[in-house]
Sequence to fold (266 residues):
Amino acid sequence: MSLIAETLSVHRSGRALLDEVSLSVNPGEILALLGPNGAGKSTLIKALSGDIGADSGRRLLNGRPLEHWSSQARARQRAVLPQELELAFPFTGFEVALLGRIPHHAGPPRPCDREVAHETLRVVDALHLARRTYTTLSGGERARVQLARVLAQIWEPVEEGPRHLLLDEPTAPLDIAHQIGLMATLREIAARGIGILLIVHDLNLAAAWADRIALLHRGQLVALGTPDEVLTPERIHRVFDVRATRAPHPVHGRPWIAFHGLAAVS
Fold:
């Protein structure tokens, strides 16, 4: 039971943003989505979440076509953190996290919903932001509160099957300590049986924490596998147009990439 794309294609203005992409986001794993700007990463997140349609191919959520799920049931199964999210209302950090519980109740938030919002803020190291006004927070602080919100959306198991978390560049606004803390948190979340798909630009961060890597280039999936299988210097050269050297990381032994110039530079 996974979130699956089968030969998924999306076209806009005569151009293929996704060209027959097939992959699965499996329960308990972190799948990192890599690729240069314009490769189709955000489009894939939007298509798999149901935010946009597809021109061909299938999208399956726990064995059922994505279109067959009601919006509320789908919201209990998968949560999405987009790259940009504006919120102009003067909510507190706690109130933003509590928004993630909307798919689970028909009326006012219940005590259990408040407990979940409190817990997810704690998990992402944002509990001290609970009473702060969201609009006064820094970019990194907002990112952590929004992560608490999407975690609250899929926090507990549901009868319909495994849950999935889709994150578009969640590390971008964070400092180094919070980037590492976020990845460690995502590892703990995956251990709860949640499948995680995240877009990240830092190849070394992906290599250190992801179970698998999907590499997109010009709308096509050019590689899918473990960090060791995907992140070869030759493939990095071809896709990112940079020269790179790879060695085992001195601590965890996973691939470590050193960049030393654009591919066009001799």
Q: What stands out?
A: The mean pLDDT is 94. The first helix runs from residue 41 to 49. The CA atoms of residues 191 and 228 lie 22 Å apart. The chain is about 30% helix and 30% strand.
